Amino acid sequence: MSDNIDALVRALPRLFDGLLITLELSIGGALLAIVIAITLGLLARFKNVWVRGAARTVIEFFRGTSLLVQLFFLFFVLPLPPMNVELPAVLVGILGLGLNYGAYGAEVVRGSINSVPKGQWEATTALSMSKAQRMRRVIFPQAWALMIPSLNNLLIQLIKGTAVVYLITIVDLTAEFNNLRQATGDVFFTYTLALIVYFGIAYAFSGLMTLLERRAKRRLGVGVRPAPVAPDEKKEPAA
Q1: Domain range summary for the chain, segments of one domain joined by +
Q2: What is the number of helices (H) and of strands (E) in the chain?
Q3: What is the pLDDT of residue 3?
Q4: Closest Cα to residue 105, out of 35, 202, 43?
């Protein structure tokens, strides 16, 4: 065990560098995914059949193909003629994660918007709101509170998905743990530690999403406890 600890101490600087890469992939991929999810989720509700059809095609394509194959395509195929587009490995990882999980998130966005009670839609019509005002001021804030729990699950899956990005030559946390395993020769020690670290990352991000959900509900007045009312004082009998 002492040999394992010594190897871990020597590997800490590299593990920290790998952790930074994993966080960069997680945060960058999550931000891109939410932008894609909201954009495609809204476009998938358009009445125009061409716009809606294009959005559905993109969603189904990235949901129906493997994240690993998408990463390989972006990293190995794009630089080839006639495209000749060569991207940094980290950017490829962010793009792959954002496109893949953004497609899943688009269904969450669309479903959450459809779940807003019909009365809310009718109220915006009665107030003569434009479509943009209706969505921005009434519908989307309510849908946002509904979609956060599902987006939280997707965020955790995205963090775990970063573990496959090292296959396109990115030296992330998983790659550094593999190097640690080779240095120690102890599979149990290395991957138990890796599980704990990844759990800590996912738990921290999940806590932030929970705070975001509470804030969204508080702004809507949902789940807010009413202020306590003081009990009526006993009236003294009249003289």
Answers
A1: 2-220
A2: 9, 0
A3: 85
A4: 35
DSSP for 181-208, written as a single string: HHHH--HHHHHHHHHHHHHHHHHHHHHH
List Cβ<8 Å contacts ≥24 apart for 201-205: 201/22, 201/23, 201/26, 201/159, 202/156, 202/159, 202/160, 205/26, 205/30, 205/155, 205/156, 205/159
Residues 137 and 140: their CA atoms lie apart, in Å, by 7
* Residues of the chain scoring pLDDT < 50: 224, 227, 233-235, 239
- C-alpha 149/C-alpha 137 separation (Å) is 21
Look up residue 195 and give its amino acid.
L
CA angle 199, 96, 149 (to 5 degrees): 45
2-220, CATH topology level: MetI-like fold (1.10.3720)
Report the predicted TM-score, pTM, of the whole model to 2 decimal places.
0.88
- Look at phi and psi of residue 169 and say left if phi exceeds 0, alpha if psi is from -120 to 50, else beta: left
